[in-house]
Amino acid sequence: MKKIAQGGLLVAAALVLSLIEKMFPLQAVVPIPGIKLGLANVVTIFALSACGTRQALAILICRVVLASVFMGSVTGFLFSISGGLLALLLMRLLLMREGSWFSLIGISIAGAAAHNIGQIAAATVTLGTTDVIGYLPLLLLSALPMGFVTGLTASAVLGHLKKIQI
Fold first, then answer.
1. Which letter does DSSP use for residue 24 in this model?
2. Three-class SS string for 86-132?
3. Considering the entire predicted model, what is its pTM?
4. Contact (Cβ atoms closer than 8 angstroms) between residue 37 and residue 23
5. Fewer Cβ within 10 Å of end Cβ, the chain: N or C?
6. Cα dihedral 126, 132, 137, 143 sign
7. Alpha-carbon torsion 119, 85, 75, 19, what sign?
8. 97 band by pLDDT with thresholds 50, 70 and 90
9. How far is residue 90's CA from residue 111's CA, in Å, rounded to a whole number?
């Protein structure tokens, strides 16, 4: 019962972060279509670190489905789920070496890059053209600062959580 409640709270937190991100006019600062901060990824990193892969996967799927229903579209769902699953998989693999090879910030940057790759793959399939692959270098470049911010935030949250856990 505790895991269900914890999962529900994390899905709600991710949805709120997604909503806040939609309200923040990032395109006014970075005029590149499709660039997002990826604030909901803080919850994914947190869930992977604190709850495990299975619960993180369930949280990711619930968040993407609900965000698509409330704020998105079928295409948005396909892009989000493709990017989210690829990012989750890569971050899970890298978390096994956290501390010795990778910091949480580095893992977050890699997750942001994987998310962008997943979205471009979904766009390629959805649009039926490989022309969108030319947009990938710009997205991967944006993964550096966006993943850094997300990783820094997740690191701070996990650091505070470790202090209050009994």
1. S
2. HHHHHHHHHHCCECCCECHHHHHHHHHHHHHHHHHHHHHHHHCCCHH
3. 0.89
4. no
5. C
6. negative
7. negative
8. confident
9. 6
